[in-house]
Design goal:
The chain is α+β, with helices and mostly antiparallel strands. The protein has a domain at about 315-525: Dipeptide-binding Protein, domain 3 (Roll). The chain is built from 19 helices and 22 strands. Strands 1, 8, 9, 10, 11, 12, 13, 14, 15, 18, 19 and 20 form a 12-stranded mixed β-sheet that branches. It has a 4-stranded antiparallel β-sheet with strand order 4-5-7-6, covered by helices on one side. It is globular and about 65 Å long.
């Protein structure tokens, strides 16, 4: 979820585009056409609504399920849809190019890491050319303001700064207008912390623009309808539940002039409507198509399919304080009740079976899959735990499309059927993703169907959220406060020796697999469909869901 912005990253990024263009291939098999879909919103109508004369040819319509949109505030946003928007409007001090773990400068021209007593001292020298969309310079004071504001607001993504980097509001200092110093304990890996600073939570907001609009919520409401960033795009408007419109920043400090003058991020949660919108040209790019839709589009002369394994993990969260889920044997029984092979079949091959908290492609991924459906074993575990036949468990499930292009409702029905075979009755309640996330983050979900993607390209981007209750992320949401898991995650994150780090993650993976509050289901493939006149699109699993709109053009 990182940015490609910055003058030093441009040439390198363009080389990566060519490489990815050769690697990513069309996919899917011919199939009978889908049933007619409900009429999708016309892109021409959507593009005409915003102020300013921008033609359809200069407008990119990007369609998908954006029912998870809750906020556009960089300090608060922690949903896939929101990070897509924020990643194109705001910039961070450092970032990555697609497929390359080497940090590159963005707002920071250079940085140094040195030892200072018991601390690491990270010194950032800001690029003297960097300006916000307003034209005002990006200063060290803006950086301190932005990071401390995220810590003070202390909502979902704040743990990245406070837990992973061990930052407080005293950690960051503006030495002068162009120099920022960050002090973190030596118990923290400076490389992991630098990776954290590529995420949207560490994006820099213009203090002078936001401060007069702070109000009681520290500016959260204002940033849902206004932007104060330095990125290639500016927020035009957010029409709740419908679309988000971005306009190109005409004065980007690094000289980025996006070919697409307007971006419309269109909320289209139904798979049939996604297919229809790309077929008719109402959308230029759509994502997370299912196997059926991809097969129907195969051979369409106007459409190209792009497919790649994501870093997302689909899972079920089990609240560890809610009976009967408070018993580890019951959680283990549920893991043995699930028929994972059937789920992969339902996905039409758009997934890999993954039963651990670290995805394929990351250091520390073990590839172990200890669970296959074993009805007898599941029943034995439930009986030993004293769980009666017909015990009910309430589950909340998102509306719309899940990872890999399967409807969440279809996935939930499959799990419901599996649990019924071992005597558990799963009651399904479907909710808008934004509503479900609010419940989950308040620790009020009992069984929650959800997916997760790492915030930065390091195994700690998954290990700490899944294992550490102290981070107030996934373990916290599922009421799982386990000292052994917390300590293992901390040791692995801070370990500088790669071989030892791999050993620690293997130990943590095994422990969470059998003791944790999760049923890990699969790692999906993402399927995008592009109109054939679209150029410059990059799918980078480490950066997903952020798409660098400023690189995209249309013939």
């Amino acid at each position: 979820m990182n940015l490609l912005h910055g003058p030093r990253g441009i040439v390198k990024s363009m080389a990566v585009i060519l490489i990815l263009g050769m690697l990513l291939s069309a996919c899917g098999q011919p199939a009978a056409p889908s049933a007619p879909a409900a009429e999708a919103p016309a892109a021409e109508e959507a593009a005409a609504a915003p102020s300013g004369e921008v033609s359809r040819a200069e407008t990119l319509v990007y369609g998908g399920d954006f029912t998870d949109l809750i906020t556009l505030d960089p300090a608060v946003v922690y949903e896939f849809g929101g990070t897509l928007i924020v990643g194109n409007v705001y910039e961070t001090l450092v970032s990555f190019n697609p497929g390359d773990p080497t940090l590159i400068p963005v707002l920071a021209e250079s940085w140094d890491v040195t030892e200072e007593g018991d601390n690491w001292l990270l010194t950032f020298n800001l690029d003297s050319d960097a300006t916000f969309a307003s034209g005002n310079p990006v200063t060290a004071e803006d950086v301190v303001f932005s990071w401390n504001r995220a810590i003070d607001i202390n909502l979902s993504p704040a743990f990245l700064l406070t837990d992973v980097c061990a930052m407080t509001t005293e950690s960051t200092t503006a030495v002068d207008a162009a120099t920022v110093e960050l002090r973190i304990p030596q118990t923290v890996s400076p490389q992991v912390c630098l990776s954290v600073l590529t995420f949207t939570t560490a994006a820099v907001i213009e203090k002078a623009a936001l401060e007069p609009n702070m109000g009681e919520d520290m500016g959260q409401s204002w940033l849902n309808d206004n932007s104060a960033g330095s990125g290639p795009y500016i927020l035009d408007r957010w029409d709740r539940s419908v679309s988000v419109t971005l306009n190109a920043n005409p004065n980007h400090w690094a000289g980025i002039q996006p070919p697409m003058k307007r971006i419309i991020v269109q909320n289209t949660p139904e798979l049939a409507n996604l297919q229809a919108s790309i077929e008719t040209g109402d959308a230029d790019i759509v994502f997370d198509l299912g196997a059926e839709q991809a097969a129907a589009l195969e051979g369409n002369p106007d459409v190209t399919l792009v497919k790649g394994l994501s870093l997302i993990l689909a899972y079920i969260g089990l609240n560890a304080l809610e009976p009967p889920l408070d018993n580890p044997d019951v959680r283990e029984a549920i893991r043995y009740a699930v028929n994972y092979d059937d789920i992969i079949t339902l996905l039409g091959g758009n997934a890999e079976l993954v039963q651990e908290i670290i995805p394929i492609g990351f250091l520390g991924h073990t590839g172990t899959t200890p669970f296959t459906q074993d009805i007898d074993k599941a029943k034995e575990l439930l009986a030993a735990a004293g769980v009666a036949e017909g015990t009910e468990i309430d589950a909340i499930v998102p509306n719309g499309t899940g990872p890999g292009g399967i409807e969440w409702a279809t996935l939930a029905a499959k799990i419901q059927s599996d649990l019924a075979q071992v005597g558990l009755q799963m009651n399904i309640q479907q909710l808008q993703s934004s509503e479900l996330l609010n419940i989950y983050r308040a620790q009020d979900g009992k069984m929650v169907f959800m997916n997760w993607s790492p915030d930065f390209p390091d195994p700690d981007g998954n290990a700490t959220p899944f294992a550490s209750y102290e981070a107030r992320s996934l373990a916290w949401r599922n009421d799982w406060d386990d000292p052994q898991a917390i300590e293992l995650s901390k040791q692995a994150a801070a370990e500088l020796d790669t071989e030892r780090r791999v050993e620690l993650y293997a130990e943590l993976v095994d422990y969470v697999q059998h003791s944790g509050p999760y049923v890990m289901l699969y790692q999906p493939t993402r399927v995008y469909a592009l109109r054939n006149n679209v150029q410059g699109f990059i799918y980078d699993p480490a950066d997903s869901p952020v798409v660098s709109f400023w690189l995209i053009d249309k013939q």
